[in-house]
Automatic annotation (TrEMBL), chains A, B:
Keyword Transcription regulation: yes
InterPro entries, per database record: HTH_LacI, LacI/GalR-like_sensor, Lambda_DNA-bd_dom_sf, Peripla_BP_I
Keywords, sorted A to Z: DNA-binding, Transcription, Transcription regulation
Protein name, UniProt field: LacI family transcriptional regulator
Species in which this protein is naturally found: Paenarthrobacter nitroguajacolicus (Arthrobacter nitroguajacolicus)
Length: 342, 342
DNA sequence: CTGAAAGCGCTTACAG
DNA sequence: CTGAAAGCGCTTACAG
């Protein structure tokens, strides 16, 4: 048996019964001590006796047994349609931060762009999560999820009736962006949208289009296209559309995400389109690279980490049985002007 | 009771006993059918009877109960020091892809740059994971993890004796990079490293430095600095070091990750350092934005998705009790030359 | 303050 | 092919 084999053999499990035997108490007492529920229920003597045994044996409460007995696990499930979006990495960090070490974060990811189905939900609930965090869900998904326990929605505008939520005020940034472009002298713009029918994309687009028309920046019907959230896909779509747009006098392109904008920047370089002189480009998200792209990208900053942090906080409250002071929170977005439109 | 309240009430759980009662069989039979272990053990009649009851009630095997009985859960834990690194988003996608729907991916994240401790390990194991995927671990961590069940290491060069692993041949790309810079006429370079003592960073640096000295590209001792994996931190460190480097005739900077390189590019723009004319910049990773940065970034391409995919495959084999044909796999890295060094 | 016991939901020898 | 029963490890009324 070589090292590899040995490592794949399981270690013998230390159980509460073993601790109890060593400390000379019952497993009930061990449970009380291990969970810190000793207040007025366990003698000081037994407490220290059990603590010693726990330390000596390296006992850790088995979360499977514990979850079964309690009826709920310590797992928090984060359901998101798109982990590969770097925006989400920061959301995850924020969630972790506020959830703390007592909850385990389980990531449920569907295939790129797909939204999770009722069937997926059932499987998730079979894990008896302590709580659920759902990003950018569809109404249908939330119907399927009914009565699932503590639940907080992230970035789910318009779905406030289903659960407490933390949203981003993307419309505000979108309007700022429209005004910025109009003020810079643009009169004809185009829009590159995400394909997923996510509500936030719709909101971004509609707020932008509305404010644009209000300030004399026109966006023709045929000048709104959509692609998956992928640099290459956006580049290809832009390559396809640009000749038309150019003929029609388009001098500004707004993208639903920075990732789309990177694709446009990339293709523009290939096609020799000068940015921002010939074409202004802007996005949404303010990913960490937008400050360094070529040129640096004007974008609507969305607070990813605070979004995750706040959602985690709210969920924690729910899991602890508290009533939320403010069940619906909206975080601000702000326009960051950089080289791509300057 | 308004909608929100109702949603936070748990749905009544459908158990195997309820299915058994409805189908007129024992829970043992329900278990066999639900797990597809009917082969020669359950009559066709009972199979269809149970299937009908399962469908009618919407029964899903409770994974807590199941895990306790089996002694192992369906959870696979991915331990990684840094989710916020976009490189990892792709690794995760790859893992998900190869693991398939029967395993749940649990993310264990330590605070930025911190490596997980023995104590964290115990908590993880309390979840009775079906398997563990550990990225860029320390030897100490692997010692703590001993005998933890199926385990596959990702990006853990030099630690092959602990477990099956999937590594990246970063040295090859590092050497290509050194030769590319030397061939472009550079004679003095600097290096911006990551601060975490991760083995892959050491490998990148050493392979580069070795090959550099071999081809007449000198890197002075004081010209190797290190920062956390963060655009801002790298920018600040570069700002600090550049005057010195410039005086010493440095004309090329190699960064341990693309993220570091973005910081250098950013600061270079601020400081008016012309790239690549005055200073060539290169990184490692080939993040999706490196093709669009300003200028586009020369970098050593590391296959993130295949890394995750392969590790997931290997782990799946282990969890199914198979012997791996090839316990140690190394994926190639390749230099991608772009504008920042051209 | 303490422990015996029931129960969480499932799986798996075992006897038939 | 089938079901009664033991057991996975824990928590929590309950009786004392």
């Amino acid at each position: 048996m070589d090292t590899l084999d040995r490592r794949n053999a399981r270690a013998p499990r230390v159980t509460a019964a073993m601790v109890a035997a060593r400390a000379g108490v019952s497993t009930a007492t061990v449970s009380l001590v291990a969970n810190g529920k000793t207040q007025g229920r366990v003698s000081d003597d037994n407490i220290s006796r059990v603590r010693t045994a726990i330390a000596e044996l390296g006992y850790v409460v088995d979360s499977i047994g514990s979850s079964l007995a309690r009826g709920v696990s310590s797992i928090v499930i984060l359901v998101t349609p798109d982990v590969s979006n770097p925006f989400f990495a920061n959301v995850i960090s924020g969630v972790r931060e506020s959830l703390g070490p007592e909850y385990q974060l389980l990531l449920s990811v569907t295939d790129a762009g797909e939204s999770p189905q009722a069937d997926d939900v059932r499987k998730l609930l079979a894990l008896r999560p302590a709580g659920l965090l759902v990003g950018a869900p569809s109404a249908q998904f939330l119907e399927d999820l009914s009565a699932a326990g503590p639940l907080v929605l992230l970035d789910a505008p318009g779905l406030e009736s289903y659960a407490p939520s933390v949203n981003l005020d993307v419309a505000q940034g979108a309007r700022e962006l429209a005004r910025h472009l109009a003020a810079s002298g643009h009169t004809h713009a185009a829009y590159v949208d995400g394909v997923t029918g996510t509500a936030t994309f719709q909101l971004r687009r509609e707020a932008f289009l509305e404010e644009a028309s209000r300030c004399g920046l026109s966006v023709a019907d045929g000048h709104v296209i959509s692609t998956s959230i992928d640099v290459g896909a956006a580049a290809a779509a832009f390559a396809d559309a640009w000749p038309d747009w150019q003929r029609a006098g388009v001098t500004a392109v707004v993208c639903g995400t920075d990732t789309h904008a990177y694709g446009v920047l990339q293709e523009a370089r290939v096609a020799g389109v000068r940015i921002p002189d010939e074409l202004a480009v802007a996005g949404f998200d303010d990913l960490p690279y937008s400050a360094t792209s070529n040129p640096s990208l004007t974008t609507v900053h969305l607070p990813a980490t605070p979004l995750g942090r706040k959602a985690g906080e709210q969920l924690k409250g729910l899991m602890e049985g508290l009533a939320l002071d403010e069940p619906h929170v909206t975080l601000e977005s702000t326009l960051v002007v950089r080289g791509s439109t300057a």
